[in-house]
Design brief:
CATH topology: Nuclear Transport Factor 2, Chain: A
Helix content: 40-55%
Order of helices and strands: HHHHHHHEEEEE
Strand content: 15-25%
Number of strands: 5
Number of domains: 1
CATH architecture: Roll
Shape: globular
């Protein structure tokens, strides 16, 4: 469990640094950085976004089973039950549940890890970034391997 969390944190820190240096931003036209395109086809990003959006809707609705279904096998093994998973999300990831607005930023592949950042704007206009790590399964579907919340220097209007 701790090993998985450390790996996700390292990956997320690398992703955050890369996004800051690359001039992170929103790509309304779906354009992706060249490095990401070289290792992940552009057509994969909408599928990744859909997985995260659908899990967020399930979490906000309190649908533990549906939210848990988007977790990668290692996360499912870590939490064992959907109820344990939802409990942890409510305990440590309230920003995901309480965001009044979410915005998908440009994703990237860093050291082989697929990172999808999501800007979260809270009711008090606090801005955070959720850095999701994703994993493609043998059946072609995408699953979430982790999420790290980071503060943002961006201010909400």
């Amino acid at each position: 469990m701790i090993g998985v969390q450390r790996a996700v944190a390292r990956c997320a820190a690398a992703a955050l640094a890369a996004l800051l240096f690359a001039g992170h931003g929103h790509a309304a036209d779906g354009a992706r950085p060249a490095a990401a395109q070289a290792t992940l086809p552009a057509a994969e990003w909408p599928a990744i976004k859909h997985v995260i959006e659908t899990q967020l809707r399930a979490l906000r609705a309190g649908d533990a089973a549906k939210a848990f279904s988007f977790a990668a096998p290692a996360i499912r093994a870590q939490f064992v039950t959907a109820e344990n998973f939802l409990y942890q999300v409510r305990l440590g990831y309230d920003a995901l549940l309480a965001a009044r607005r979410t915005e998908f930023l440009v994703g990237a592949v860093i050291d082989g890890s697929v990172i999808q950042p999501v800007r979260l704007v809270g009711a008090d206009d606090t801005v955070r970034v959720a850095l999701y790590t994703m994993e493609k399964q043998d059946d072609g579907s995408w699953k979430i391997t982790g999420c790290v919340l980071a503060p943002s220097t961006v201010q909400s209007a």
